[in-house]
Design brief:
mainly alpha, 10 helices, 0% strand
Length: 203
């Protein structure tokens, strides 16, 4: 059953692997250390693709990684080298350690595909409104905050506990903040829109 699922899901992610592998290889060629924050956006994308390929089964992800390193038959001729897999694996390990300081292992299987394109669009709209000095309680900002919250709720399987743990992790861990689609200023603006009680009151 696992093999059938892997073969079916591979079609969904196959086209996204080569450019990601090329970006990781470019960082390695530049000598960027695996523990650098610069690697974290690629580590996050790698984790997302592996999760989609393997239906969020992170036990299977771990076993596949071990088999890839040990068994040449598991590696395609055009697949990433074991050195590259070890490099991104170190970055992913740092990311996972940060997440697990706040989340449970079984939370990860329930996370959906992150709606990054939608979040980037909303982040750009928020940045434009913030630059114009629009207050967080303005309806235009509130509408974006509601849409962001809707996407986040779907991403976290409509579970407030998972959502709260992930928010706590993002707030506390620089490694996770390195992959955020918002700048710190826009993130603060969004949080003030979501929690009007924290926004400064006008006289």
């Amino acid at each position: 059953a696992e093999i059938r699922s892997l073969m079916a899901n591979w079609k969904l992610v196959a086209e996204r692997w080569p450019p990601l592998v090329a970006e990781v290889a470019a960082l390695m060629a530049r000598g960027v250390p695996a523990d650098s924050l610069e690697v974290q956006p690629l580590a996050a994308r790698w984790m997302t693709l592996m999760g989609q390929w393997m239906d969020g089964n992170y036990d299977l992800v771990t076993r596949w990684g071990e088999m890839y390193r040990r068994e040449p038959v598991a590696r395609r001729e055009d697949g990433p080298s074991t050195e590259l897999v070890d490099y991104i694996g170190e970055a992913i390990g740092i990311r996972m350690a940060a997440l697990l300081r706040h989340m449970r292992t079984d939370d990860f299987a329930r996370l959906g595909p992150p709606p990054e394109d939608e979040w980037r669009r909303l982040a750009a709209e928020l940045a434009a409104l913030q630059a114009r000095g629009v207050p967080p309680e303005d309806e235009a900002v509130q509408a974006i905050a509601r849409e962001w919250a809707r996407l986040f709720d779907a991403f976290t399987d409509h579970d407030p506990g998972i959502g709260a743990r992930l928010m706590q992790a993002m707030a506390a861990e620089p490694v996770l903040q390195a992959t955020a689609v918002t700048t710190p200023a826009v993130r603060d603006y969004l949080l003030r829109a979501m929690n009007p009680a924290t926004a400064p009151r006008s006289a």
